[in-house]
Design goal:
single chain, Metallo-beta-lactamase, Chain A, Rossmann fold, 16 helices
């Protein structure tokens, strides 16, 4: 009985773990890597045609995006996941295939213009995505499912995305049973629409994410509708647009939830009928799937609106654009507006066109509402880049670039610790994955030193024997061959100091205005000294 770590080992994206138990070859997630990859991933230990089952935690592409490649290479097994995740994958995997095919076509056209021999092929095709979708087996939350003799699983709502789950796996060999829990991405509490994470009480071994394992979301309960309304008011009063790069599935629907409240409560003065454009066919389809799964996934606040006959994510002035012609027309409309478009990290899709039309305008606001991976355009904008290249043209960044602080689908450090402390007894071992290199290390140390948990952060290729409780192979990090930006230890220390400063600022809320003004002056003075 062996567990092997393949993807998202000391990295955030490309989640993939291999389990060999009861004579079966199992993958837990098979995601696409996004942004800059720091380390090489180990190859699958068996051919794709030998994989018996895939267990999928949720539909995000960094967890599901490479599953069609399995089918392209001979996978004939079953893909077990929740009902809502199966619904979302039916659109997301096709959308991802479309992007792969479009990019390959574009690269080949470019090669022809430069007299190169076109050779680019898509990672997989629409046919491969359709083949994968046909292998999906929808499961209900909380129900045990027997895969074969000696293997059973159960999905638990973990509050990260519609249909997201942690997965419990019971494996029995030679009358010895081991229970392994894969956390998936653990959700943040008090998100709109979906339920809070549900804890799991028992496990021999735990594989858990650590995306925000070195930082805290704001300690106070932010009124996101009020924060968003303030940004809209300031931008619209200047005659600008608010452009929101947003993940089509999950975050877009949450933003719509807040916008409905803002409009219903008249929170933006002088712009009562401001238009909102959702410029993403995928987001439009995903929104319909949210409606379909509301009974099993919506939280009580959202369900109260449903019972009152109110659609929580729809309102007057909402425009759903499907065609490219409709998308192009948005930026020729002069009325101040909200534009929500994918991709959330600005790496592809229609959002790049909207950035081209709005980044150079100082009256506009670019508002990020989700995690930005290292190496993405979104991360560069958040870090203050002065100009960007879009479609071969250099664009000055004059618009205000902001993030809606604390709006995250991921649990922060305290949320992760609360989840792992939900087990009645400490697991034999906790494997820390799905975090940037420095984060995996620091969160693992935190679990070990502060909570007495036997934690370990494996690199890709590490193998662990679940029966003997021993590492059979401890892999070393293999840096990616292409040049990658790696954050130095000193810079990581500086980032941690910045997080501490933000925490101190929040703790001082409510103190005398005189003291707060003095504190603000000190912070501004420090920024002036180091600002380049």
């Amino acid at each position: 009985m062996k567990l092997m770590f393949i993807g998202a080992a000391h990295e955030v994206t490309g989640s993939c773990h291999y389990l060999n138990a009861c004579g079966k070859h199992i993958l837990v997630d098979y995601g696409m890597e996004q942004g800059i990859n720091v380390f090489e991933n180990a190859a699958l230990p068996v051919p794709e045609s030998c994989i018996d089952y895939v267990l999928l935690t949720h539909a995000h592409i960094d967890h599901s995006g490479m599953i069609p490649l399995l089918t392209a290479r001979g996978f004939k097994g079953q893909i077990f996941t929740t009902e809502a995740t199966a619904d979302l994958c039916s659109i997301m995997l096709r959308d991802c295939a479309h992007i792969q095919m479009h990019e390959a076509e574009w690269k080949n056209r470019k090669a022809k213009r430069s007299a190169e021999v076109p050779y680019h092929e898509p990672v997989y095709t629409m046919e491969d995505a359709d083949a994968a979708i046909r292998r999906l087996v929808p499961c209900r939350y909380g129900e045990e499912t027997e895969l074969c003799e000696g293997l059973k699983i159960r999905f638990t709502d973990v509050g990260h995305l519609l249909g997201s789950s942690s997965i419990e796996v019971w494996a029995t060999e030679e009358e010895t049973t081991r229970k392994i829990v894969f956390s998936g991405d653990i959700g943040n509490k008090n998100q709109p629409l979906i339920k809070d994470p549900t804890w799991t009480e028992e496990a021999d071994y735990v594989v858990m994410e650590s995306t925000y394992g070195d930082r805290l979301h704001p300690s106070r309960n932010l009124d996101y509708a009020a924060e968003l309304a303030k940004i809209l008011q300031e931008t619209f009063d200047k005659g600008g647009n608010v452009v929101i790069p947003s993940f089509a599935v999950g975050r877009t629907q949450e933003v719509l939830y807040f916008l409905r409240k803002i409009k219903a409560d008249g929170m933006v003065e002088g712009h009562d009928n401001f238009p909102v454009y959702v410029d993403s066919p995928l987001a439009v389809e995903a929104t319909n799937i949210f409606h379909k799964n509301k009974m099993s996934c919506f939280d009580e606040e959202a369900m109260e609106l449903v019972r009152e006959g109110i659609n929580p994510i729809s309102f007057p002035g909402l425009h759903l654009t499907i065609t490219s012609e409709e998308s192009k027309e948005i930026n020729f409309e002069n009325t101040p507006k909200v534009i929500i478009s994918a991709s959330g990290m600005c790496e592809a899709g229609r959002i790049r066109h909207h950035l081209k039309h709005n980044l150079w305008r100082p009256e506009c606001t670019i508002l990020f509402v989700g995690y930005q991976a290292v190496g993405t355009l979104g991360r560069a904008l958040m870090e203050g880049v002065k100009d960007v290249k879009l479609f071969g043209e250099s664009i000055d960044v004059r618009a205000r670039v902001m993030g809606l602080v604390g709006m995250s689908g991921h649990a922060d450090k305290n949320g992760l610790i609360e989840w792992v402390q939900g087990f009645k007894e400490k697991p034999r071992r906790v494997f820390v994955v799905h975090g940037e290199d420095a984060v995996c290390k620091s969160f693992t140390e935190c679990l070990q030193v502060e909570y007495g948990i036997k934690a370990y952060a494996p690199y890709s290729g590490t193998e662990f024997n679940l029966l003997t409780n021993k590492l059979e192979y401890e892999a070393e990090p293999v840096p990616i061959k292409k040049k990658a930006r790696i954050v130095s230890d000193v810079f990581a220390r500086l980032l941690a100091a910045g997080q501490r400063l933000l925490a101190v600022i929040h703790k001082n809320e409510g103190r005398a205005n005189k003291d707060l003004a003095k504190f603000a002056d000190q912070v501004i003075s420090l920024c002036d000294k180091w600002e380049i």
